[in-house]
Amino acid sequence: MNSKDIISLISKIRESANGFIIKEMEKYGVIGLGTSHGDIIFALLKNEKLTMKELAEKIDKDKSTVTALVDKLIKQGYVEKTRDTEDNRVVFVSLTSVGRELKPMFDLISKDLMTVVYKNISKDEEEDLFKILKKIKNNF
């Protein structure tokens, strides 16, 4: 393998993983959401509410992109925005009850994805891979 192929390979892995996630969500009847929408829901499943800025940092997207993603999730009934009672300029995003109902689906899809990703890979290889990929990310 040519070392220059690493970025192409990472890109193909990401594409395959995203396709897997979308297909699995569709099996559960969640249609029309991309993986970036899933990133937001996943972040909110871990945190009861987040500001738009915190959400942007957690999913590593710019604030304007997050605003567009959140707006779509609001239209689909998964999240809601509320203003901070102490500082009206601060907007929080949180899951609705419909959004919280997605947790079991997200847990299953995450488990299934990890099963596919680490199939035929030892624990040591998994740890080495993570360390190397983290180094590559930090290089940027």
From TrEMBL:
Keywords assigned by UniProt, alphabetized: DNA-binding, Transcription, Transcription regulation
Superkingdom of this protein's organism: Bacteria
Pfam families membership: MarR_2
Domain (HTH marR-type): residue spans on this chain: 3-138
PROSITE patterns: HTH_MARR_2
Protein name, per record: MarR family transcriptional regulator
